[in-house]
Sequence to fold (418 residues):
Amino acid sequence: MTTHTATPAARAANHLPRKHYHDIDGARSVLMFLSVALHAGTVYAPARPWITGNTDRHEFFDWLIFGFHLFITPTFFFVGGFFAVLLLTRRTVGDFIWNRFLRTAIPLIAIALTFNMIEHYLRWGDAGGQGGFLDWIGSPAFVQVWSSGFWQLHLWFLVSLIPMFLLAALIHRVLPESSKVRRFAVDLSDRFGKLASGSAVFALVLMLLAAANTANYAVSSLVPGGYDLIFPGFQSWYKLTAEFPFFVIGVMAALSPRLLAALTEWRWWMPFAAAAALLFQPYAFPHHGFALGMGLLFLNQLAIWTLVLFILQFFHRYFSEGGPRTAWLADCALSMYLFHHCLVYIYGQMLVSVDWPIGLEFILLTLVSAGTVIAIHELLVRRFALVRLFFNGKTDVDTIRRKPGLIGSFFPQPPRAV
Fold:
């Protein structure tokens, strides 16, 4: 693969000790584990009656999944933008694209062609489809899965990230380091960081971010055909741009240490604000009308930013040290994200025939799905190079084998006395 000559900043960065952002990586990892509970909740949420044939449902799970949706994916996009900038300062553009292809595109393709297809086949059968796997592949339902973009399921996050990574690489390649645009971006990020410092004014910053998101939604909704797929099997312009502001703020936080410090600074009132956002969960729906809908959309974005930044502040305060546990969680996080969705459906469908308390079923479904992914990760992804490449995007299997696994990371053996 052709690569470009490294920039002076990239060459200099390669000779400096690399700072590891254990807090940000830890937040991403824990949220990927939390996504198991999110999708397990859809099995019992009245708002998702098509997930399985389970008739045991409760409104609590609507509250749960809508609450999780407020902050899990937006935080992923913030982290994606943040680490994209860090990688571009340490690598050439060609190396960055190759790294993102390995870490994003290959796992996306591997899961889409395996576990996601298994899940879609099972869904087809549960919906009344007749025949085996080959019959399904030859049916109009199979074509519809791919042409509609429904093949993505939970992978839509990775699909959206890919063009954002390419855009970041293009801007980094086109703009010289000495360009006024680069200096303006850094200066703007620094100024925003100065504005966001402190506690009282931070509430105004949250409202400013919410207003920017609201404007982004409003503009995207006015694009002709914005809700239609850009091309078959992909995404709409509206969905592609919905999470873009979080990616941009992640980029700005990476450009400016002052902004990153301001966003992750602990504020005593943020836990209460985050709890209120999670409790009330403002959402705008078409029946609300224009004025009320725009107001609720603003409050929705305010709740999202409050939760996202609270999570970043929480992990910065309590999980900045790193260690074997954080390293294991970070390594297992992508496996958890990729594999769990199909397993939740399979186990959730199994639980349709039992008549246990709904809370017990939910806990069991979450734990068994996560436990199965952990077993896959420990027994396959960490041990076999080809499996690790396809489902983790890495080729470091020899190195990872020498590092402690789940047991060694969380239950280390005390050193033996000599």
